[in-house]
Write a structure and sequence with these properties.
It is a single chain. This protein is an alpha+beta fold and 333 residues long. The chain has helices spanning 11-19, 53-68, 76-82, 90-105, 115-120, 136-139, 170-184, 283-296, 298-308, 325-328; strands at residues 31-38, 41-48, 85-87, 148-151, 154-157, 190-194, 197-201, 210-215, 228-234, 237-243, 248-250, 256-258, 273-280, 312-316, 321-323. A hairpin with a 2-residue loop joins strand 6 and strand 7 (197-201).
Length: 333
Amino acid sequence: MRKITRICICAVAGIAMLASGCGRGKDARQYQSAEGMVWNTTYHVTYNGAPELKDSIMQVLNHVGASLNVFDENSLVSQVNANDSTAVDTDFIRVYVESVKVNKLSKGAFDPTLGPLIEAWGFGKGHKATGDTARIDSLMKFVGIGKTRLDMDTLVKDDSRIRFNFSAIAKGYGCDCVGEMLQRNGVEDWLVEIGGEISCRGKSPDGGKWRVSIDRPVMQKDRILHDSQCVVEVTDAGIATSGNYRNLQSDDKGQYYGHTISARTGRPARTDVISATVIGRTAMEADALATAFMAMGADDVKRLNKSTRLPVMLVLTDSTVWCSGQFEKLMIR
């Protein structure tokens, strides 16, 4: 599915740009900054509130990880993956319900039960392709969120071999959870970024909306480049970008393929979309939709967005860029 390593929206350059504004707004001295490592990626939080909340940020992230981190053998999702039915918590339920919604909206392009295929193509535990790659068709029998259901607070699977991987939505959800915690503690202005996914609210340290730099897709095998595609000015929103060009595997013939797996074919999706950026109501929504849009292709995304009317930017294989009208209104350069 997506995202073991993702295109960074704010990433290093973007966060530095935001931090450089501290001190210029009238309330800038109240803004705090917290950063670190979580889920094999980085997080950055800028918020206008008490310094003591930095400990709470990590507590929230640990709580989400204990539920949704597929790389943690003791996590709740790992327990779900090992059983036919498992009692689940609020975090799992919220992400599951959103996954069902986006799965239906995208006509199956987004599906968190691609776990066996993600591992087969070398993007799961160990990040190495296995012999399972040769039997994709048999693995497809265990794929499909429609083969699972919630029964009150219990997740039930039609087959115990169905396995979830929420990597395409968990970072966005984590951003939302940190933002919700800050809001409960009276914080009105924040930006939370985890591995390139963003949730923001209120005002930046400069007193205006948050300015976010979105990376240009630049394929580089030996290093990560942060070249800005554009800058958007947003608030009270979630932002996510999905792209294949920074998380590649190669087959026996030396052909590279990306980590976006098609739920229809069970193989790496081959579309005309190099990267997809979505600005949604929540970071969780944007996260899931960005993954779906990578697998759908530009024409299907454009048709769908006539009804969703979300700010969307697609970078295409012919080097052109398509932006929805809603996205263009947010661009400042």
